Amino acid sequence: MLDKFFNPKKERSKVIDTGDTAFILAAAIVLRPRKGYGKESFMPHNLPMTLIGTGLLLFGWFGFNGGSALAANGIAATAFVSTHLGGMAGMAMWTLVEWLHRGKPTTLGAASGAIAGLA
Question: How far is Cα 54 from Cα 32, in angstroms, rounded to an integer?
Answer without folding.
Answer: 28
